[in-house]
Amino acid sequence: MSVRVFIPQDTTALALGADRLVMQLQALTQGMDEAPHIVRNGSRGLFWLEPLLEVETTAGRVAYGPVRAQDVESLLAAGMLDGDQTHPLCQGLTEEIPYLKNQQRLTFARAGIADPLSIEDYSNQGGFKGLQKALTLSPQGIVDEVKRSGLRGRGGAAFPTGIKWQTVLDAEGADSNPQKYIVCNADEGDSGTFADRLVMEADPYMLIEGMIIAGLAVGASQGYIYLRSEYPQAQVMLEQAIAKAESAGYLGDAISGSDHCFRLEVRLGAGAYICGEETSLLESLEGKRGLVRAKPPLPALVGLFGQPTVVNNVLSLAAIPYILAEGAQSYADFGMGRSRGTLAFQLAGNIERGGLVELAFGATLKQLLQDYGNGSASGRPIHAVQVGGPLGAYLPESQWHTPLDYEAFAEIGAVLGHGGIVVFDDSVDMAQQARFAMEFCVAESCGKCTPCRIGSTRGVEVIDRLIQGHNPEADLELLEDLCDTMEDGSLCAMGGMTPNPVRSAVNLFPEHFSALAETVSTAEKASSGGNDHA
Amino acid sequence: MSEISEFDSAVIDASVDHHHARPGALLPILHEIQSSLGYIPAEAVAIIAKALQQTPAEITGVISFYHHFRRSPPGRNLLQICRAEACQARGSRELEQHVQTRLNIGYHQTTQDHEYSLEPVYCLGNCACGPSLRINDEVVGRVTPDQFDQLLDELGTQPLEVC
Fold first, then answer.
1. Peptide bond into A296 cis (omega under 30)
2. Chain B residues in contact with chain A using a Cβ-Cβ cutoff of 8 Å
3. What element of type H or E holds A420?
4. Shortest Cα distance from A45 to chain B (angstroms)?
5. For A404, which DSSP code?
6. Which of A14, A270, A422 sits opposite B68 (nearest CB)?
7. Where residue B162 falls among pLDDT bands split at 50, 70, 90?
């Protein structure tokens, strides 16, 4: 039997030439007695090594990366197809690469191992075990299991998933047997995040399984995955996976031979960041402008088309099969305090070893940046780190020891959000980053509430004046006041959290605002969490 | 081009027929029209409004709300540069300057020869390997200004000469 070679087909591998690599390998091995069998797997999430080529051997899979098309000839000559480990691109056995080996992969345990669309591979690796378990439980039994796991929404708000499900399970609506929906928020718009995409491209059946279980738990027969249009590859994978799951009997009228029904559809967003906010997302799914809705009523009670609706992030739903299959306690055993389980951290931006790092809560940012990230990609000192997307604070070195835990981050006025970590070296201009935060809010505000719609425009103007430095004390006071107004007066997190990056840039990196460097009082520094960074 | 072609009109009718009975049909209809024609012709608005029993103003409001939907035909190639923070940290600000100078257009514009349209995008999900851009449906990572020039050459067209 010919040797199996794995070359990923996820967005990052493709963006770095994986298809060209496949063509080159095919061209150079054509006519060989034992031409390799190329499997297009998902990515392991070790993006710094993409395209990561793996060769199956009796000792395990041997990794080579990053492999460009022009490297294939020398790799073949060195005996890559026999698992040779002398070539400079060889990384040894994949499972032994420390970056991967030291992680605590629960949600991403299967990522990159097999062809993401093979239902057989998925089942052989423990897939659908959670669903089989769920089919033996009552709806309340499933909800109780999720509650016991301590899982909190992975989209950013960290609301307990089990409690949300309980609300939908108990929702009566206008009639006693209302139509309910499961909506997966796959509008992963935060810069520095790609974990949802990796789930959808590397292990789509896990998300599908999680959504079916959610349907069983709350009594919903229809699910929608609201996917951002910027993810064409994820769309291809999801649509094929849904079609295959339907023909295999996991979706449709009688899921796994039971009398339960669940249908699933992918709906595409259209480039609006705000549609990652759950009520805006529901408006968009209904075919409207993505204007944020006032809460209450909660979407759990009055959600999609006015019906009780579970809206969960991809990672929340993807954690469900493990929780059902292995038991709530097994999941809750990971983590610290009220942050249970694991979080998929995403190392991005100016970092040498960017990629997905799934760890139990409690590691520190410093550990991630050094042990996994190996410093900046440019080789210059890391200067600022933005955690939790465009609405998250910029953290100076003095804060990198903070444990990665929802509560610990809240205490320093920062957010973990969806786990995105964007690294900047010392060439960054923090004044421009503060300005960009407001500019982004101008571009992406839905426009429904004034503090966000107008506040962001005024924010850009006042930061521009602050940079020019004619009257910095007055402008700083105005900016503070504006940030207060946006924080307190906005309908949702878009306007409410845009002040996070702005305030952190101004307060913790004052030396980037030349006019400010002289005027920021020590009292302000102290109240903003200290700045021993200068 | 004041009137749309028969082909365009058939595409619009087919897209409306295909989706109008689905709950929340408007975005699927708009996506199908745009992926076939490259944009949403003004003539589509009244047809969609009638099928969905909505007003033309409502349909126009939705089209204008979403960055993805275009109301004019794009160039032969649609270029999107990621402007989000992770790509900024890897030099996307320099890249966007280079691209704009090279093509001699700004964001939301199309080159005179109709070869390229340039749009900003806030995140392509390739944040560990930026700066990223998307050419039609293909994402490209770690793009330097030199590599961008090479990509343009590979697209097999004559770039505009800029003085």
1. yes
2. 23-28, 30-31, 52, 61-62, 65-69, 84-90, 121-130, 132, 134, 137-142
3. strand A420-425
4. 10
5. S
6. A270
7. very low
Q: Among candidates A453, A437, A521, A461, which has minimal Cα distance to A491?
A: A453
**Length reported for chain A:** 534
Rounded Cα distance, A207 and A481, in Å:
43
Instruction: Indicate yes or no: CB of A192 within 8 angstroms of CB of B127.
Output: yes
Confidence bin at A533 (pLDDT 50/70/90): very low
pLDDT cut 70: percent of chain B above it: 94
Q: For residue A428, what pLDDT is reported?
A: 97
Residue A381: its pLDDT value, please?
98
What pLDDT is attached to residue B155?
A: 87
Test mutation, A68, A191, A430, A448, chain B, max B CBs within 10 A? A191
- DSSP state letter for B40: -
Predicted confidence (pLDDT) per residue in A285-298, tens digit: 999 999 999 999 99
Residue A152 φ/ψ, nearest 5 degrees: -120, 145
DSSP H helices in A305-387? 314-326, 328-332, 365-367
What's the burial of A486, exposed, middle or buried (CB within 10 Å: 0-12/13-18/19+)?
buried
Is residue B159 over pLDDT 60? no
Nearest to A149 by CA among A324, A405, A312, A408: A324
Compute φ and ψ for A173, nearest 5 degrees: 65, -160
Element (H, E) at A342: strand A342-349
Question: What is d(CA A449, CA A182) in angstroms, rounded to the nearest whole number?
Answer: 28
ipTM: 0.94
Strand A222-227 and strand A181-186: the pairing is parallel
Q: What is the pLDDT of residues B30-88, one digit of tens each?
A: 999 999 999 999 999 999 999 999 999 999 999 999 999 999 999 999 999 999 999 99
Among B107, B110, B114, B102, which residue's Cα sits nearest to residue B145? Answer: B102
For residue A160, count CB atoms less than 10 angstroms from its CB and return exposed for 0-12, middle for 13-18, buried for 19 or more: middle
Q: What are phi and psi of B110, to 5 degrees?
A: -125, 140
Half-sphere exposure of A228 (CA within 13 A, CB side): 26
Best CA proximity match to B103, nearest among B142, B145, B44, B65: B145
pTM exceeds 0.80 for this model: yes
Dihedrals φ, ψ of A213, to 5°?
-65, -40
Q: Which residues contact A127 (CB under 8 A, 6 or more apart)?
A: A110, A119, A205, A206, A209, A321
Reported as type and span, the H/E element at residue B139 is strand B138-140
